[in-house]
Amino acid sequence: MSHGQSSDNKPPKRFPLMLDKVSSQAGGNRSRSSPAAVQREVLRPQAHLHQVEQDRRRHTVPQGVGLDSMPVRLRMVERLRADGITHMAVLEAFARMPRHLFVDTALVNQAYEDTSLPIGLGQTISKPSVVGTMLQLLCARPGLTQPHVDLARPLGACLEVGTGCGYQAALLSLLARHVVSIERLRDLHLKARSNLDVIRQHVPTWQDVRLVYGDGMVGHAPQAPYDTIIAAAGGSALPQAWLDQLAPGGRLIAPMEDARGQGQVLTVVDRLPDGSLQHTRAGAVLFVPLKSGIT
Ligand code: SAH
């Protein structure tokens, strides 16, 4: 089964946008920012390009691959933007994260296509547009309007279920205060560990990710609660542990089998400040199944 393939019709092109729309689509509380703050947000692409250039100087492209990854990566970012991913921090994370370092050498030339790719053991690295949609949704979590929130790290304390090769965990690390990522397949857990060892040397301002080998269906209680929870595998119901470990103002996003047997639906659950849960659906998707136990 392929993973992370959106079966939605492509969203209508929403670019170019009016500047005021860019800031409000950029997520959460930014729509309520002062005019000065809005201007800062709009100006961030320059800062982002500057940062990308700094990364490029530190960055080495794999020997023999002949892929100058930065221009290719920036083209992928432009495609994501044209497809409606407009949150600047999310685009910046994609621009900075070398996806080709997470895939097998034979697949490097496809690393910046909008496609899911095999990572071994029947699993796949998610399609960038699906990852981007999920990250952008997480970046609009309800708790972002609280005054103490660090807007540079909009995902706060983040739990990922399904580490896979570690690519999405690495993106999360640029958007979160800290990340816990769980994988049930030991060999993939170890692969992600070695991938992130490489990435750590390439990407500055990286927040370390705590990789856990275990069954993500029980979440990870020692570091709960989480402001954001993201699952890369879908089951027939949301595990109670995830809901229990979601902080007030937090948002969970996970694929879930449709009750009428019509495939998977991306499900968003917000824990509102009064503690109640609000469920919404964000389109049809196709992810690998969520399985219990470890292997
Ligand atoms: N985010 C990953 C994609 C992972 S594919 C990446 O960027 O590469 C989904 C992963 O979820 C698979 O590796 C699968 O083994 C894992 N998975 C499925 N059920 C799980 C569970 N109960 N706990 C932890 N991981 C699980």
Q: Using DSSP, what is the number of strands? A: 12
Average the pLDDT over all residues and give the rounded result.
82
Bound molecules: S-adenosyl-L-homocysteine
Strand arrangement within the widest β-sheet reads 1-11-10-9-7-4-5-6
Task: Report how far apart the termini are.
Answer: 19 Å
Quickly count the helices: 8
Low-confidence stretches: 1-47, 59-66
Helix percentage: 25-40%
Shape: globular
Counting helices, strands and paired strands, the structural category is alpha/beta
**What's the SSE pattern?**
EHHHHEEHEHEHEEEHEEEE
Major β-sheet profile: 8 strands, mixed
Give a verbal description of the structure.
The chain is α/β, with parallel strands linked by helices and 295 residues long. It contains 8 helices and 12 strands. It has an 8-stranded mixed beta sheet with strand order 1-11-10-9-7-4-5-6. The chain has a two-stranded antiparallel ribbon with strand order 2-3. It has a two-stranded parallel ribbon with strand order 8-12. The longest helix has 24 residues, at 35-58. The chain is globular, with a radius of gyration of 18 Å. It starts with a strand and ends in a 6-residue tail after the last strand. Bound molecules: S-adenosyl-L-homocysteine (SAH). Residues 3, 119, 123-126, 161-162, 164-165, 167-168, 182-185, 188, 215-217, 232-233, 288, 290-292 line the site of S-adenosyl-L-homocysteine (SAH).
